[in-house]
Each structure stands twice: as C-alpha cells, then as structure tokens.
Amino acid sequence: MSRNDLILLIAETIGVIAVVMLLGLSPRVRAKREVKFIYPRREGLFALAGFAVILALAVIYYAKLSHTGLQDDLILAGLSALPFVAFLLVRRQPMRSAGWGRANLSLGLQFGLVLAILALFIYNRIGTILGGLSGAQIGSLLYWLAICLLEESIFRGYMQPRLSAWLGGLPGWILCAAMFAVWRLPLWLSAGGTFVSVLPNLGLALIQGLVLGYIQRKSGSVLAPALYRAVSTWASLLG
Prior knowledge:
The chain is mainly alpha-helical. Helix content is 78%, strand content 0%. The longest helix has 33 residues, at 135-167.
C-alpha cells in the first residue's frame, strides 16, 4: 500500500466514524429495534461453528484456485452463506435475527447511502460517475454489492449480534472483526504470501471489521455496512 493510499484510508476511516456518530444522534437511531436472544450462549456457539465451517471452506476453495477474481469471491461468499441460511431455516429463526429486520431497514439504507457518498467524495469518484460509467465498471460495482451483501450478512448480520449477546457488546464486536480478518487469510496466502508478509493486511482487515461492526451497531441493519463497504471498495479500485 502506497503512502497516498494509506492517507486516503485513514481519512475515510475517520470520516466514517464521525458521520456515524453524527447520525447516531438522531432519535430514530435511539429508537431502533434491537435483536434479543433467549439463549445467547447457544447462539454464540452456532456462530462459532458456522465460522469454523466457512474458514475450512475458504482454505479448500482458495487452495484449488490458481488465481482469484470477483467471480471467485462471489462464489465463495454464496457458498459461505449457505450454512447460516440453513441454521436460520432449521431453527426457524426470522431474517431480522441476521440483520435484516424491517424496522431498521430504512435506517440502514440511510446510513449506507450517506457513507457511500462520503466514500465517493474521498476517492474523488463523483466526477467519474457523472461522466458516465462503462459496462465493466457497472458490472464491477454489481459484483461488489452482491459480495458485500452476502459477507456482511454472515459477519455483521448473523455472527456479531450473537457473539455480542453471548460475550457482551464490546467483546463480541471485537471477536467478530478478528474472525472477519482471519477469514481473509486463505485468500492472501493463496496469492503466494507468507503469514508474516500478510500481517499488514490482517491488521487493516481487523480495522475494517471494527468499522463495519460499528456501523451495524449504530444502524441496527446489515444493509448499512454492506452498502458502504461495496461502494468504498469499488471506488478505491476504480480505474
């Protein structure tokens, strides 16, 4: 990562935290619906079991690939979502227990759009969008939206609320962010990196996970971190 990229990342992180704090002052945010679990320990153990499954899946998946792209990431995200969908169906739990509650959906959309626009300004992509996007650029954005909706539903939708209910808000938030970072390890290692060489990536992913978790905690919806992350990642990579 270049010095300029690091400066942009720091500016984006500070900006996102500041905006979320300001949005959090709204009475609507204070009145958002919180997910409650009758047996939090059991829910936390299901989250850990699901993570073990998708981590093993990621190790196997990336070990089989000679290279990776957005299509590969989308396939893995879809496969990784399946165990958690199965948990919800078999245990007859509603979608709101995975961050998709109707009561918080409009709030999540508001958070997500505001943060997405912030990311576009930071990466100076407003002019690019107004000037017209190519088919490839639009396709890339759609891929990122699909990937992030799936991955955020897993980590910030299913895992974080359950880990927080079991271990406490702060420990659950931090543990979920750490699990999100560890889940990326097979991808980085498959590209030829060593554990030591990917430590900076691990640290950045941990910070990203904490920021995304903070957005979810404030908005009460998985839509907010998913929209923000998709647009931010797309904007940072847009040629």
